[in-house]
Design goal:
Number of helices: 8
CATH topology: Rossmann fold
Strand order of the largest sheet: 3-2-1-4-5-6-7
Strand content: 15-25%
CATH class: Alpha Beta
Helix content: 40-55%
CATH architecture: 3-Layer(aba) Sandwich
Bound molecules: nicotinamide-adenine-dinucleotide
CATH superfamily: NAD(P)-binding Rossmann-like Domain
Number of domains: 1
Largest sheet: 7 strands, parallel
Order of helices and strands: EHEHEHEHEHEHHHE
Structural class: alpha/beta
Length: about 250
């Protein structure tokens, strides 16, 4: 059990990559708060964890709303007596298309879900982590933040902001024994955002073109990302802070 009894919040864990992270952390002994804006999806993930003998509870919160993020952190501390880690996974993208065609509303939503959420989790979770004598943030950024492709410009920029902000926080919060790291997954075609990233239906032609840019010859899975998150959340990563782990089959080299 690599994260036994650790109190961990996973945002956007009702599906996709977040669900994979919540399941993996729970299987390794973590007490998980499954967060999402979609209660039905989040409750389903909790049921799956409980059925497997793990410990989890659902907490509905919108990561773009300060009061809701505060309530989410408070819920973890109330239930577990502490907070050890927060996985900021909830994310959103505008559909893949020319930068000039993305609306202002879409831009605002992208930055609210992807970037403001990091600000709010920092503001509300750092006091809890300090009270715990330390802990860690695991921010799910993207290969988009280091190797941007056309059509996802505003999303790419938001993930670049996540990466730089995380490194800055690692430098600033180190003296509090708080580690801040990122994971940069490459495309995962099974998730809710996949068709948006691809700019439409996942045709074999579209997938093949993209797959050909990944040296290991396949896309990422939620389990690939979850395994990286498990390492970063565990004490094995006690001296790892300010890094981004590319989970991308060498796409970014
Ligand atoms: N799927 C990929 O190919 C890929 C690649 C690189 C990075 N990422 C990143 O991984 C993360 C997860 O993406 P995914 O593909 O699993 O997406 P997904 O759409 O499958 O899952 C995201 C979950 O977040 C929830 N969510 C959305 N807005 C929220 C909010 N405001 N508050 C709380 N929950 C909210 C959704 O309800 C959903 O359950 C995102 O940060 C995304 O940018 C995904």
């Amino acid at each position: 059990m690599r994260v036994k009894n650790k109190s961990i919040i996973v945002t956007g864990a009702g599906g996709g990559i977040g669900e994979g992270i919540a399941l993996r952390l729970a299987a390794e002994g973590a007490r998980v708060i499954v967060n999402d804006i979609n209660a039905a999806l989040g409750e389903k993930v909790v049921s799956e964890i409980l059925r497997a003998g793990g410990d989890a509870a659902f907490f509905k919160a919108d990561v773009t709303k300060s009061a809701e993020v505060k309530a989410l952190v408070d819920a973890a501390v109330q239930r577990h007596g502490k907070l050890d880690a927060m996985v900021n996974n909830a994310g959103w993208t505008h559909r893949n298309r020319p930068a000039l065609e993305v609306s202002e509303d879409e831009f605002d939503r992208c930055y609210a879900v992807n970037v403001k959420s990091i600000y709010l989790s920092t503001v509300h979770a750092v006091p809890a982590l300090r009270a715990n004598g330390g802990g860690s943030f695991i921010n799910i950024a993207s290969t988009a933040g280091v190797r941007p492709r056309p059509g996802l410009t505003w999303y790419n920029g938001s993930k670049g902001a996540v990466i730089t902000t995380s490194k800055s926080l690692a430098a600033e919060l180190g003296p509090d024994n708080i580690r801040v790291n990122c994971i940069n997954p490459v495309f995962n075609p099974t998730t809710g955002l996949a068709t948006e990233f691809a700019g439409g239906e996942l045709t074999e032609e579209r997938l093949a073109k993209f797959r050909a840019t990944i040296p290991l010859g396949r896309f990422s899975t939620s389990l690939d990302v979850a395994n990286a998150a498990l390492y970063l959340a565990s004490d094995e990563a006690a001296f790892i802070s300010g890094v981004c782990i590319e989970v991308d089959g060498a796409r970014c080299v």
